[in-house]
């Protein structure tokens, strides 16, 4: 199906998210859409898939016919289907039921027939599901496949995939790409939205780059990576150099600390963390690194052992005591734990400051917000509510909330879902704070390259076991990957450093 | 979504509570039927004792063609099938029997009309031309006093109060105010008698509202009637078991009062085969009907509402009720012809014809569950009462054993009105714990 | 446009018109003239100084309660127990008045102390709900409802038990206090300027707490995201409790004024349903303090204006309650519609 977007404009209040985008995607191609966070990719795709409506004057033309889509349901009738970052399904249901649920209501659910159709379709695209299995037994990658099948079944001819490679394994990614590559043969169109250059380069027949709501360029293979990056960011970007380990005074000291929750026990961790040092925590989700980090923040109380911060014994003290001593914790769930939806940026900065008197000085708050917004390069205004910001800007806002002076910064997935420029920016800010305040950093990331790139030492967690601190400079991704997977561990658990 | 759900849940809780609060008001009483036939205000039913008369300063008597406008404040809805409706229909009775026009306001209570006081609302009725205002509930006692004092030109009737009773404990001289109350003691005695005649187990339960002098004397009256008739039926009155359980209010408020359904059930399942209702609604009958269907021989006596037995005729022994029309008619006539006297009227039944709506302030309707024999005996008891039998005659002791009436001593109205405790032989609390 | 403040007001105006139309339809259905009914309600509420004063009598406690609820709602709490907090305020005030009634202290001081006692009792009652919530894990809605029942039972117990009046314990309440213990009223009007002043000061204070103080901002943060507020360093449960305490104190003040300015004694339904009405007002104004005064006044005017319906038109006066309820429902409904609109646009 041939897709033509003509003069697409979209305003959200004062924000002009799409500024007259013209893009033609011929039938049977895989079109990549590149752009950093907030470039307008998601808005454009939501317009195309009927989730939101463009401003008057914009046109969506499918196979030469202008169409008006006022809901995802009408979009799918025209043959446009969108695969979401978080697949929309109903976990406690059987795969087949979930599948049937998406079908038009006039469709009489004949389970036997549906099972046959389902299996036929799965086979054609190389998927293997047991339709009687439950959805929550599937991995994220498998759910994506299921969602693709559902859209196929509904007769989609245009597939929109928004950041589909986030959160899935390498093998699942390969499988997904293999599937997608079959689509053009059948005259179907794939629109692949990502900020990952590598994925786009591997998959797409053509690439369009958005920046600041405008279409800034289109290219075809062979791709020139640095050119793409330049188009995305409007300037040349390079990764930061690895910086040598800093060694200052001991900031945090764990002495034979044991931790416990309902699932996991971690025994006898001993660790000294020095000012300026960055420690990365690696491990599969739920291997104990989260509990360890919360123990550093005072959110989890050790069952035994001592936690000493800058010479003060804080064992068993509350999170707020830790915070007063300069420990800041930036949780991964930004809108659930880190920020307060409904409150503006100004409100947040005011809240994070020590109160001066009873009344808030609004003018000072506004000034503070403007300064922070500028120095942290947040795209938003002092009155923007945090939920209206993009993920990267929310992360910058969290960083801007770091108190001063700081002794320890704890970060959970600080750069998850962010584009490369944001990642570089955020790490440079973090390192600055480290230097200024003589603080140390502990962070969790599932991106092994990030862990190796930014930490001085790292700890690997594997089902409650903690490795000895490992020198990041002399460790390869491969070695790290094996440790995370539970291989090459010394006979005895328990870490001492 | 979750927030919306919370909103919804709260709205529901709120609505439920509003309904509960709105059902307020004291004992609803049966509405007398308005048989327009008997226009006379005759029948000198046992009119209450008359305080020394005090002349009203300025009597605005009625001119003959202008209708006399009277106002009525009702504590509950005018159609509550109970206390307030009885007054409302008495008002209609007045309109039919006099050249009079009623203006009324119902639901006069702080829960339904936040921020208002009955005296203020009475002024609204005066603004509509009312020259006499009836306050229909104990709730409005203080407000009626305030209003009467602030409006000396307006006649005031305060039903169920005792402010202008010279022999009362809280007498105030208010020339333009009159207290009217019915001697429900007789109705309760008859109800107690019906219960005693019908009981097989010799155990009678009394479903009481909250505890005050009025509710104590009504429960005691039921007991006196029961004891007398139990003996009349050939039993030893000392063996009669009479137990009062107070639920805490005139009707069920979940969480605040005892559940009257549960209390009734407890009575019936612990061998109390007859339960007398002293609260607003005859829930005892419903429970009795249920148990009777299971084969238990149980029955009940209702209260207030002339047709209350219709709820469960099979188990209803009868119902004592109020009929306000006759006394109101007399009072208004006295205001019109200038013979108004501030007095406390405690009107009894018309013994000649208990259920005559033109003459009798207290009535008793027998229920279908009363056997023919027992009905005949009950008629005998009523005849004895009519003939001068006074059960409030000593020797009677209070519940704690202290002497209340010496042998042969007849209780004064004060002694009955301000009954300090339940009587000896009754089981149950005499005062709030 | 729909996202803006103006858009919100527009939707609420539509809700108002819908609610009025709905009630008008009911009126037509029972054969009454809606115009006549509204006219009577209008003249019956603001037709004269006297009526206006009566509206204000109803307005004062409603505004106090709404002011308190704005804080608990901001803290993300459903303080259904506010009704009981009014009752306890009245009980506290009655207790203090009984205690001081024979003392030689100047009456003005006694009244002031009694109102403070009421505020204290209301705050105490709210603290129970707050503690149950914070330490007992009992949802404040259920805890509050339970405490409301207890407060009703306590009132009845006091009126018919220890605080029984001379003569027959009466539904009419405890013995009225001498006139010197009443808040002074305007000549020939029922409203006490003191009571009105207290209520207006309360709403202004709450407005400034929410708009301009660290305290208010923290309360809002706790209400909007308890977890994030905690991680941002706010002592969350303390702030939840503070909001309960202040709301309880304001509800207690409402109860205190019911005793000192309206009924001059403790009566069985002293709280008059103002707590539940206040919840409706707070929902209707979407927790914005700025609207509390006009909307609370409107509700109070409905309460008083509707008295004319049965008297003059022989109409059931529960109409005002219907209008209030319908209004809240339509406003919530329109708010839902608006949000759907905003999301789509």
Kindly describe this structure.
Chain A contains 17 helices and 21 strands. With 497 residues, chain A is of the alpha/beta class. Chain A has two domains: 3-233, 3-Layer(aba) Sandwich (Rossmann fold), CATH 3.40.50.300; 250-326 and 403-484, 3-Layer(aba) Sandwich (Rossmann fold). In chain A, helix 12 packs across helix 13 (362-375) and helix 14 (391-400) runs parallel beside helix 15 (420-437). In chain B, strands 12-10-9-8-6-7-15 form a seven-stranded mixed sheet, with helices on both faces. A six-stranded parallel sheet of chain B has the order 2-1-3-4-5-11, with helices on both faces. A two-stranded antiparallel ribbon of chain B has the order 13-14. In chain B, helix 2 (83-97) packs across helix 9 (325-337), helix 3 (118-127) packs across helix 4 (141-150) and helix 7 (260-269) packs across helix 8 (283-293). Chain B has eleven helices and 15 strands. In chain B, strand 3 (132-135), helix 4 and strand 4 form a beta-alpha-beta unit. Chain B is globular and about 60 Å long. Chain B has helices at 2-22, 83-97, 118-127, 141-150, 184-198, 213-232, 260-269, 283-293, 325-337, 372-386, 413-417; strands at residues 68-73, 100-105, 132-135, 155-159, 177-182, 203-208, 241-246, 274-277, 299-301, 316-322, 344-347, 362-366, 396-397, 403-405, 426-427. Helix content of chain B is 33%, strand content 16%. With 433 residues, chain B is an alpha/beta fold. With 345 residues, chain C is mostly helical. Chain C has a domain at 56-287. Chain C has helices spanning 5-29, 34-46, 49-74, 82-100, 107-136, 140-160, 193-212, 214-224, 226-231, 236-263, 274-284, 292-305, 308-313, 319-344. At the B-C interface, helix 1, strand 2, helix 3 and helix 4 of B face helix 3, helix 6, helix 11, helix 12 and helix 13 of C.
Task: Describe, in short, the structure shown.
The complex is a heterotrimer of chains A (497), B (433) and C (345). Chain B has 433 residues and is of the alpha/beta class.
For the structure shown, list the relevant keywords.
heterotrimer, A: alpha/beta, Rossmann fold, 2 domains, seven-stranded mixed β-sheet, C: 345 residues, mainly alpha, 74% helix
How are the strands ordered across the major sheet of chain B?
12-10-9-8-6-7-15
Which strand-content bin applies to the residues of chain A?
A: 15-25%
Oligomer: heterotrimer
**Can you count the helices of chain A?**
17
Count up the domains of chain A: 2
Tell me the β content of chain B: 15-25%
From the alpha-carbon coordinates, what is the Rg of chain A to the nearest angstrom?
25 Å
Mean pLDDT over the residues of chain B: 84
Tally of individual helices of chain B: 11
Q: Uncertain spans of chain B, ≥5 residues at pLDDT below 50?
A: 1-63
Q: Sheet with the most strands of chain A? A: 7 strands, mixed
Count structural domains of chain B.
2
CATH architectural type of the largest domain in chain B:
3-Layer(aba) Sandwich
Note the gap between the termini of chain A: 60 Å
Write the H/E string of chain B, N to C.
HEHEHEHEEHEHEHEHEEHEEHEEHE
Distance between the termini of chain B: 47 Å
Q: What's the mean pLDDT score of chain A?
A: 82
- Can you say what the CATH homologous superfamily of the largest domain in chain B is? Response regulator
Kindly provide the name of the CATH class of the largest domain in chain A: Alpha Beta
Structural class of chain B: alpha/beta
